[in-house]
Amino acid sequence: MAKGVAKYKIFNSKLTAIVSISMVLFLLGLVSMGLMIEDKLSSYVKENYIVSLTIRDGSSDKDVQTTLDILKGKEYTKEVKYISKEDALKELTEEMGEDPVDFLGYNPLFASFEIKLKSEFAEAAKIDKIAKELGGLSVLKEIRCPKQLMEKVNNNINRLSFLLLLFSAVLLFISFVLINNTVRLLIYSDRFLIHTMKLVGATRSFIRRPYMKTGVVIGLLAALFAIGYVLLMSYLLDDKLRLFIDFNDMSVYAVMFATILVSGIVITLIATYLSVNKFLNKHEGDLYYI
Prior knowledge:
Blueprint: H1 2-46, E1 50-55, H2 61-72, E2 77-83, H3 85-96, H4 101-104, E3 112-117, H5 124-134, E4 140-144, H6 147-188, H7 191-199, H8 204-236, H9 238-241, H10 250-280
Antiparallel strand pairs: 1-3, 1-4, 2-3
């Protein structure tokens, strides 16, 4: 009977440890999701800056098409759109509510290209290089880019990224402390057994080995629990989070699950190693006061 009670208590303590660690790992998974959302939003914003290239009047259709093909082939181009003088006039008429031709007698607008850059090129310094390169195209009259807006938004994005990384580092530290304390409590009941094995001549590595294996199993099971929480959350909040992140993208799950699995196993292993060493380094008299 006593043996059964002891097994139940051991099972209960391990289950409690697994659930506790899984909640911490779940938070780490959420942070990795937050970093992915921030990265995708950053890319989305940067790739929606529009660089406007005004085309000189009198440019031939052939020259315009050749320039369009050149722009499409550039490494920094995500998307390029040709806007004729007529299309530009139509857009302006819709915005103003009246046709400028009615009081000017002519179309004052120029044809243009609108380029959306790849996110890694949407920076002021790179824009200057791109503008200098495009300045050599004879078809182009003027290059306009919202550099001030771009710098302001990019600075805000960089601040947000720094804050998220700082928060991630703090959470990782807190996670290690919580998991370390959980594992230490789990091993606490075996402190006299560890001391006894040390007295009969068992090596430190021999004593640590079964605890390290148990630590890996606990970390793995906790990670699987945490992954289950993530899957449940993505199912329940899919409609609300779809605006920010695509849960149909397998890379999203791959990053989150890898973060949870690696964190669960590595942190639990380190915590187990440190906890066992703590009791290995204690004298028998000190074990009563821990």
